[in-house]
Every structure is written in C-alpha cells, then in structure tokens.
Amino acid sequence: MNTSILLLIVGMAVVTYIPRMLxxxxxxxxxxxxxxxxxxxxxxxAVLGALIFPGILLIREGDIWFGLVGAAAAxxxxxxxxxxxxxxxxxxxxxxxxxxxx
Amino acid sequence: MQAAAASSQRSEFKSGLHAGMSIAxxxxxxxLTFGLLAKTTGxxxxxxxxxxxxxxxxxxxxxSLSLIAAGVGIAVIIFNTFIVNIRHFLxxxxxxxxxxxxxxxxxxxxxxxxxDETFSVIxxxxxxxxxxxxxxxxxxxxxxxxxxxGIGHLIxxxxxxxxxxxxxxxxxxxxxxxxxxxxxKSVKVFYLALTAGALNSILTLSGALEAGWSIIAATxxxxxxxxVVLLARRRAGF
Lengths: 102, 238
Known about the structure:
The complex is a heterodimer of chains A (102) and B (238).
Chain A: H1 3-26, H2 34-52, H3 64-79, H4 84-101
Helix pairs in contact in A: 3-4
Chain B: H1 2-41, H2 45-54, H3 58-69, H4 74-84, H5 87-98, H6 104-111, H7 116-123, H8 131-155, H9 161-167, H10 170-185, H11 187-205, H12 211-235
Helix pairs in contact in B: 1-3, 1-7, 1-8, 2-8, 3-4, 5-7, 10-11, 11-12
InterPro entries (chain B): Brnchd-chn_aa_trnsp_permease
Subcellular location (chain B): Cell membrane
Pfam families (chain B): AzlC (PF03591)
C-alpha cells in the first residue's frame, strides 16, 4: 500500500471523526439553555429541507424534468402515507420507467 | 430484568437495521461509483476499501479522488475534508438532544457512524432514540457503503445507465419519506423545512456559498428564525 495514500486516508479519517464525536461526548449529561435545546431539536427538520432542496431537482445535470418527475413521485408517495422504503423503491421504479420512455 | 433489557436492546437494534435499509439501498449506487472512480484514479482495492472503512463520508471521499487525480497535496485534501464535514458538528449536537444517556465510550463509538443520512433517520424517530437503534441504523448503512465500494472497484463498473440514473433519486426520496410524516403532524416542521430548503436553494444556486457551508447556514438560520418567530407569536398571544 502506498504510504502517502495511507497517510491521506488516516488524516481524512481523523478530521471526519472529530466533528462527529466532539458534541456527542462533550455535551453528554449537560443541560443546555432551553432556547438552545429548542433550536437543536429543530435542526433535523431544517436539515432535511436543505438536503432535499435544491438537490432533488438537480439529480441529472441539464435535465430539470428528471428531477421534477422524481420529486413528484417521492412527494406523492410520501403524502399518500407510504413508508420510507416504499417511497424510495417507488421513486426509483418510476424514474426507471421515465428514463426508458424518453 | 436483565433478560428483558437484553431482549429490548435486540429489538431496538433490529428496528435500527430495518430503518437503515433505505440508506443501504441509497448508498449502493454512490458507493459502487466511488469504487469505480477510485480504481480509475489509481487506488488499489485495499486502499479503496480502507478509505470507506475509516472515513465513511461520501462527499469528501469523492472530492478527495478528484484532488488526488489533480495532484493536490495531502494536507490540502485533509483540510478540505474537514471543511466539508464541519456540518456534522451541528448534527452531532442536535443528535445529543435526541439520544438516551449512555457511556462516553458507546457514544464515541456510534459518533463514527454519523452521516447526513443516518442522522436524518435517527433524529426524526418519534420520542428518544436508543443506542441500540443507532447502532442498527449505522451498521447497515456502513456495511452497504464499505461492501459496495469494494464491489465497484472489483467489477470495475457501476449499474446499468438507466438504473444508475434512476437510483440517484434514492437518498432524496428517503429524505422526503422521513420528512413528510412529521410535516403532517406539525406545521412548525413544515416552516423549518421550507425555510431551510428555500435558503439553501438561494445560497447554492446564486453561488454565494459552497454546498457544505450553505447547508450549515440554511439549517442554522431556519432553526433559529422559526423558533424566534413562534416564541414571539406565543408571547403576543396568537
């Protein structure tokens, strides 16, 4: 194994692990101010919004329709009450069909 | 008592594995392609699998390949990796509010498995999340990531073009599937996601911020603004 690649991988591993680990361990058992707690509890839903948009519309460069069809499929299935796995598989199937048709 | 605790841990772990299945599916095309690209960049099979084993971060692993190919120095690639993953500070702090109390050793161990996707699944679960549940979600996601990186390198090809394209929706569809049930229950969740999604779109599409930073900015601003507005409205008696 190439030493400099090995060094690179270990370095990347360390700097990736630090932000994942520090808050979970340093904040264990600490009671944060109520406002901060509320903000931290909001984060998962805000993150989901930011992870979905605009990314979902840009999954295929130069073809916004591909993203729109995929997004429409995912939102329709989810709003209809399908569980997460069904939303995922359903959206993949629908986009495969769409891809084969055009 | 102990037997009951062990069996509830087992069932929590199993429901974690189950909840992580959609991540495993979503990681498949990305990891296969990563393995393939790593091979074309000149990494050996062992190096490719080792990187996925130790780093376990999709975006930074992809970026590192293009930087290696461009002949960029190790220190710069490592620094870049750190920048791309700064958003995990935020997720780790938020996850801490969600998780049951546990020993620092266990928390330091499952912290390794924190990604955008595992965080989304664990943090949107109803009620508190348990350590066993987190381990389940992370283990199946990690397994898919590592194994598929290796397979991508070994077979030197990714999925058929139409499936590859269609599967690029997988993780986004998962995020949608995680978000919508909470939106149905709480209008606050709707405002949070809408504000963050709109902000992130403006920030990335205008080129104001790079994707990593704009996710952090959009998430923080939306989480704070929505909280302040709702507090103000409650105080005003609405």
